[in-house]
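Lecture notes, unit on binding sites. The following record was shown on slide 14. It pairs a sequence with adenosine-5'-diphosphate.
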Amino acid sequence: MLFGKKPGYDPDYDLKIEESLAKNEYPAEKLDAARASEHTSLCAQMCTKEVWDKYKDVVSSGPAKWTLARAINTGVTYPDSFVGCHAGDKESYDDFSDFFYPVIEKYHSGFSMEKGSDLKGTPSERMDPDRIKVDLSDSAKNKIASTRIRLARNLSMFPLNPGGSRQSREEVIDLMKKVYAVIPDESDLAGELFLHTTMSEEKRQSLIDAHFLFRGKDRMQAASGYHEHWPHGRGVYLNKAQTFINWINEGDHLRIISMEMGGNVRAVFERLSAGAKLIEDGVRAITGDEEVFMMHPKFGAVTCCPSNIGTGMRGSVHIMVPKLIEKIGFDEIDRLCRERNCQARGSSGEHSEVVDRIDVSNWRRIGLPEYELVEDMIRCANFLAEEEDKV
Ligand code: ADP
Ligand code: MG
């Protein structure tokens, strides 16, 4: 059975602009309430009245014609969001700098926008598995169900999706179709592209359940405009072994993913590096653009959400620590992870519950080479495994 017009989609998740923002008025009440709560989003912290007044009539100089009202819709609508703001194009970050720069510096602790990132070497050098100097302990390896490392990337020829259209999303996927079509059959990375417009509901759900596909239907993502024009332009590419995966237009244009069962972090990292290069070279061969992935001179890869900018890399393991969950709970585990520059997520990813496994990943994504971020994740997994063994 093919799904209907909007597969797995609920109209409740259509983009709605919060009432005050729709009138381009400062949402004082909502932001005050968010600031008074224990959990204050970065959006609520940084969007002061002064910042609002400075930018309320500014329109970004890029293709999205982005506004501050659009940028902060998620954080204003949902006081429980963590970041709560999004860019509509690359230019948004600089055009609203008094808002976005503090958000960036607060999220990526230790990073300074003034100094910028001075990562040495090419991406392939920084993603060389031989540069990873720490190993998973035997105890950690025994507890790891699977390993996944992804890069968030956007294509420089299009607006970011929250500021894009149905057409821009369709153009992204049309371009990617051509890139995948020329991957030689004998390559480990060769596979098939599945489109949301033609995929059966059963197929889609089975890919989600296997952790291969984004879920859609997320209230916070909807408020940022990620789900607009669903399902057009959405898709997923899977190689034959289901270890190299690309998400197309979930939020960012591309999520380039390498994953496999078990804890062979180096193999996952190596495949990701090769896969990212394949995609970059493949797009360049078609469009002729020198800058394939959208890059900012100060921080590197540009993404819709400020949490992903920089390397755009999140490396995670799914680790089984049932006794620790029972003893101290998820929130305390997350706190311990954050002390180690990592974070904990639920069994099905961000905003999901813990069923059995915990997703442990690097928290920072900027100003540090990719192999060091992988090391953060390995050290944190080793620590959690040790704590589990002590219970
Ligand atoms: P992302 O940072 O890529 O947006 P999400 O938190 O949205 O990640 O999760 C996306 C999907 O990837 C979810 O299905 C999640 O369970 C899955 N996932 C994340 N880490 C792993 C892992 N180490 N092994 C298997 N699946 C994973
Ligand atoms: Mg996600």
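Take-home: The beta strands are 144-153, 191-195, 235-239, 244-248, 254-261, 295-296, 300-301, 313-319, 342-345, 358-362.
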